[in-house]
Amino acid sequence: MLEDLKETFLHELKAARSLADTNQLRVKYLGKKGLVTAQLKALSSIAPEERPAYGKEINDLKVFIEQDLEARDSRLKEEELRSRLLAESIDVTLPGKAVSHGREHPLSRTLSDIVDIFVRMGFSVEEGPEVELDYYNFEALNFPLEHPARDMQDTFFVSSEVVLRTHTSPVQVRGMEKRKPPVRFIAPGKVYRCDADITHTPMFHQVEGLMVDRDISFSHLKGVLEAFLHRMFGPDTPVRFRPSFFPFTEPSAEIDIGCILCSGEGCRVCKGSGWLEVLGAGMVHPAVFEHVGYDPEEYSGFAFGMGIERIAMLKYAIDDIRLFYENDTRFLKQF
Amino acid sequence: MRVPFEWLKDFLPLTVSPEAAAQKLTMAGLEVEALERTGEDVIFEVNVTPNRADCLSMVGIARELSAAYGLRLTLPEHDVVAETGELDFNVDILDTALCRRYAGRIVKNLTIGPSPDWMRNRLDKCGIRSINNVVDVTNYVLLELGHPLHAFDLDAIRGHRIRVGTPGMIRGAGAQVTFTTLDGVQRAVPGDALLIWDAEEPIALAGIMGGSATEVNGTTRDIFIESASFDPVSVRKAARTLGVKTESSYRFERGTDIRMLKKALDRAAFLMKKVADGMIYGKIDLYPKKYAPAGIRVRYEKVERVLGLRIPGEEISRSLGALGFTVEERGDAMTVTPPAYRTDVTRDADIMEELARSYGYDRIPAVLPEAVLGEEDRESFRKSTMERIGSALKESFLKSGFTEVINYSFMGVRDLEILGIAADDPRTRAVRIQNPLKVEDSLMRTALLPSLLRNVVHNVAHGTREFRLFETAKVFLDGHPACGGSPGNGRGGELLPDERKRLAAVSFREKTRALYPEDTPDFFVLKGVFEAVLDDLKITDCTFVRSHEPFLHPGQSADILLGGAKVGYIGALSPVVIERLAIKSQKPSLVVIEFDTEALLPFASRDVRYKPLPKYPPIERDTALMVDADLETAAVMSRLREYPSDLIEDTILFDVYQGRNIPEGKKSIAFTIRYRAADRTLRDEEIDSLHSSLVEYIREKTGGEVRS
Ligand SMILES: [Zn+2]
């Protein structure tokens, strides 16, 4: 009798295809009016000595049915989930929705690389006006009126006293006017020269630097700028200091690095010399100190300046400076 | 300057290779920018800096090499034997500050003709065209010794007389003088320009160019050679005013060697005898105040302090001696006297450069200075806040897909016209450049938008259909009435314009097919980027009101107000402006924003006060309100936020709808109010009653109706 019941159950369980089917079976066998429940209720009609054994058999069957149903349920749930998820499939080979981040201008990137190096060396950042007084741009930097040194910089004039600054060096003077030594700052910014061809644009960027204190020497100038160049271009980059001229520094130097394109062999970019000029520098001229009221017998210092376009062109192998200002997205997106 | 290597060997027993000599010069501060091989010779292209006028000649370069290699320098032959000492010539210098020495010689019976090959060849290598043997000699001596000379046709000089003076001195103040130079150009001479005159008329622009009337030509037999010293500033001013630049003016501007002057004169006479069979006559030499070099005191301790190294006394004397300086040691200092050709050396710093140069920059050790920390003052605090604003802005725009551009700071009048900016708009107060490269670039920008629109035109023309660009840069407002120039601009600050940092961005999109459509209008994309910046900077007091900018779409633009003051605008570019720009595109969406980034500064906050996380659950209620379509949503939302209740935690707008089921001229605004108490769990009944009075309030304030 119970064996038949079990047989029928197993047969019906096999046919169950959904959770609804197994629930129906659960009601049919284990419900209040279920077949197994009915057997339990009928237990009283059985001889008392056979009751415990038969009762146990019924209970075993109940547990068996419960477990089988549960096992079946969990398999059905898994299957149902699988088929539901399958129905939700997407074509994973389609491209993602473009999250196009904008690109920083290559000059900004280069500029912030440079600024970061100096800031880590303890330099602060100064700013000055771009439309500047002749006094700050030239006179206080020891470029007398009608001096040929002014020919070194083709100047845009606003009036006889006002120019577009031709270099970031006036910030040196303004920075020193504002405070007493020690001073140590850099001044990045836009500068203007009345010149346009494949290697010149009427506006370009420079970073100026200044360090003044007691006992600052040419040795320190070499130390700081060598450290900068090694961080910017790599620790093995050869660096060369050679004498030059700027009205506001004395002694003055130009600083070359070994050509990064030909490793010093000589190429078109370094004009065969194996060297690339990247920095101008020098010890602050006593006349500049006198303009800002520093005593040149007490203080000394060095100043330096570099063109950002030049460094960015070397770094990214760009051969036409005008590309920086065309702002063609096909160019800008490459960085 | 072009320097043939072979020519240098006239003065020095050079045995090194041209490459080695070029390297030596470069490291001594005379950068050899290029080496050019021509036949047997190598020509150096030397970059002579403005301070080294003494190196603008073959002898000058040879002198540097002689010091560097310790070789003996031999000057060219210039001893002349005059055929006769008689010279019935009269020279007057009217201002000895403008002309400190004037010398001359007469050479007669010349045979004018072509120069010998050796001379033509050398002139050619230096890039100077051969004219005739007499003119060539003056040029040859200029290249060789660096001193400019001029040869006059003696017969053309009237009255056997030379006068050196300005038109003002000769003809009286305000005199108008015109003069034809030997290039055939008639020039109006400024009243303070120094001229050479004969008994009647001017015959040369002193130190710049001779006149056509006294030019040496094929028929000349007798000449007067001038060798003089003119004031650099006076020559430069005259040359610049007249727009003339010659080999001669170039050297006089930079300073010439007053002692070399006589050698140059004699060398020229010597060569004229040699190449043109001239007869040399006696000379005139007016030299009222002899050059007396001043000694410069240099303390050894300062040399050590500034250069960062100790150079032994005897090495100092030796290297300065090799450069032609005389050194007198006096205890802890020395007195150094520069040679006459080093007019650039005037103070101890100049001597230190000479020392460093001859010692070798490469031998000076590289040392890192010890750290000195400056003080953090109010200024640097302000700056760091400004830097933070700058980088928050930049980052926000970059992250949102805007690519950074950098434009020239220039614009033209036409740019303002395209935007339809009125004459009384402050943006017309632009700084004007006197000598612009192009008329389109003759003003300093008062707005960034024109440059960005140029970028749009460029990129569309190159086939880019969708892009976002932004720029952060300064604008320049002239004669700003509010500040009368910029405060803190130091002396003469009132002459300078107000420089303000601004940010501008454009978003350009053509209606194109896309795999995943973007349905947010670009106006709101851009506004979202800006609001993200405000959020980063904790700026809350920002409002948007309809804009009247002439270049914006009147229905799709807003002014940005901070604390009630306008700091910028955002909006779709007016179709009229798009047409004026001739952007070749079908129905482009072009949204722009520009604002003053410095104006954000006073509203930005660095202070963050922690708020405890809520302990009790919120209750939310949604309501849809139907109002007149032209009522601005921001007005409704700000009314809601005004409602006085401590239990309102947030008001969130989630839908604005017009169309089906909404009557014409109306729109539906749907919002969620989130209620929460800090100290207890709210009851539904309590919130039901609070929410219905809030709805009643907003209905009344907006004249709207609740949609159910
Ligand atoms: Zn190279």
Helix/strand structural class of chain A = alpha+beta
- Here the CATH topology of the largest domain in chain B equals BirA Bifunctional Protein, domain 2
Shape by Cα distribution of chain A: rod-shaped
Q: Strand order, main sheet of chain A: write it out.
A: 1-4-5-9-8-7-6
What is the radius of gyration of chain B computed over CA atoms, rounded to a whole number of angstroms?
39 Å
Q: Helix coverage percent of residues of chain B?
A: 25-40%
Shape of chain B: elongated
Architecture of the largest domain in chain A, according to CATH?
Answer: 2-Layer Sandwich
First CA to last CA of chain A: what distance?
83 Å
How would you state the average pLDDT of chain A, rounded? 92
Which sequence of strands runs across the widest sheet of chain B? 18-21-22-26-25-24-23
Strand and helix order of chain A? HHHHHEEHEHEEHEEEHEHHH
Name of the CATH homologous superfamily of the largest domain in chain A: Bira Bifunctional Protein, Domain 2
Query: Which value, in Å, is the CA radius of gyration of chain A?
Result: 43 Å
The low-confidence runs of chain A, each spanning 5 or more residues with pLDDT under 50, are none
Instruction: Average the pLDDT over all residues of chain B and give the rounded result.
Output: 91
CATH topology category name of the largest domain in chain A: BirA Bifunctional Protein, domain 2
> By CATH's scheme, which homologous superfamily of the largest domain in chain B applies?
Bira Bifunctional Protein, Domain 2
